[in-house]
What does this fold into?
Amino acid sequence: MYRGSLIVFIIYVIFFVWALASALSGKFENGDKTAWVVAIIFAPLIGIFLYFARGIHQKI
It folds into this structure.
């Protein structure tokens, strides 16, 4: 049970860091970068999912 939780946590951290780095390094229109970074930090599960579903396609 412990090993499974650790694997899920590691996968979560990888996606969190990947989404945050991608949002910070990308160029967005109309200040969307700030909104995506706030969403990823303050609502991590939903923010990460929404960023990869919608935000990554909004880059210039």
